[in-house]
Structures are given as structure tokens and as C-alpha cells.
Amino acid sequence: MAALAALIFDVDGTLAETEEWHREAFNATFREAGLGWHWDQAAYAELLEVTGGKERIAYHIRREGLAPMTPERIAALHKDKTARYTARVAAGGIALRPGVRRLMLEARRARVKLAIATTTSRPNVMALLRAVGDVPEFDVIAAGDEVKHKKPAPDVFLAALRDLNLPAEACIAFEDTLNGVKSATAAGLRVVVTTSLYGGTGPFPGALGVVSDLGEPRAPARGLAGATPLGGVVTLNWLRGRG
Ligand SMILES: [Mg+2]
Predict the structure, then answer these.
(1) Ligand 1 centroid vs 183 CA: distance in angstroms?
(2) Is residue 12 annotated as a catalytic residue, yes or no?
(3) pTM of the full predicted structure?
(4) What domains does the chain contain, in order, with CATH numbers?
(5) Which of 113, 127, 155, 239 has its CB 3.0 to 4.6 Å from that of 139, i.e. a possible disulfide?
């Protein structure tokens, strides 16, 4: 097995729970418009199967048997929602998932490269990375709007490997969905799944490991300074041990 040379991260659901910010922006819009609608996580998980924000609103109206709304009204609601979402991203009201920054910093120290392979467009990725701030530079960013076939096709991971100039055996991918796992494994990569709010509960065939998140070391118990347990924390050593 080649020495570990790079970590390749998916973005949505893996670096951050971006769909939660979309959901909250929808709910704020509905509240401000006096509609009395609220999408909880269970409802939103179902709505995510409808692609596109305007389509999601239209689906909600049909499903709930609500009074029909003109396309213009739906478009206006969606525009308001998008403004709320992007303002929140720009304001930095966004957090990386547990352990992401820690593992990235550990990789940087060990001269293990960092890459992104995402279905999201490059401007959205850059906006997110700027907003979260205080993260190491990525050596490579491969984005969905630059490859022919989106996940579950391997294209975006193959693009990342090409730009890293590394063989798949030297890299480990991080994903939160079955489609992401399929994409990474089709590119010949080993892949660790961090389950997310909307990424499904598996099974994830072919995954190197499935964890709730990358984890943070727990603070040592009072009086036991130095005896910090590292259970449940995904480190480079943990990854090498799975190899
Ligand atoms: Mg994802």
C-alpha cells in the first residue's frame, strides 16, 4: 500500500452541514412572508429529493393541498431565500463539521496534501471556504461544474487525482452519501464516510469506515491532565491503520 499522500474531501454534508443553512433560510423566508410554513428536518429530507428550490416550494404546496401560488410569487420567495442564505454564508455564520479543521491541520503538518472533489460549483465552494476562514489552503479543488459526469460517476475524483498527480492508492476520500462513496470507489479510492443529517444512514458498501463525524479529542477529565483519551477521533494514524 502506498504511503498516505493526500486527503480528498467532499463539501456538502462532509465539510459542513450546508443543507441545514438552506433549510433555515427557507424557514426564515416563510416566517417573514407570514405563510406559517415550517420545514423540519424530516420534511426537508423528503423535499431534498425534489431538485431545485422553486420546485421544492411548488411540491410543498401540492403535497399540503395549499392554495395555489403564482410562479412569480414562488420565484420571489425563492429569491428572498437565496439572499438570506448567501448573506449568512458571507457573514461567516457557518461551522465546519467536528474534526474537519483538526484533521486538515494534522495533514498539513505531516505534508499530506489536501484536496476537494465536489459536485458544487467552484464559486460556491470558494465562498464557503472564505466564509469559514482559518482553514489550510487546499492543494487541489475539483468542482462539479468542470467535469462531464457528476457523482456517482468518478469524474470529479479522477480530476482531483490528476491535479494532485498522485495514484488513488496514496489517497483517502471523505464522503457523506452513497453516491459519493460510489464516485470515490469507482475512481479507485478508499473512502471514509462521515454520516450527515441528509446523507442517508447507509449501508455504504466498499467504505473503509463509517463514523458519525471525524471527532475532536475530549478534554481530559479534571485531575487527569495528560490522560486525554482519543477514542472516536479520526487521525492520520487511524486512517493509516485502516489502510
Ligand atoms: Mg456530500
Answers:
(1) 11
(2) yes
(3) 0.84
(4) 6-16+95-242 (3.40.50.1000), 18-90 (1.10.150.240)
(5) 113
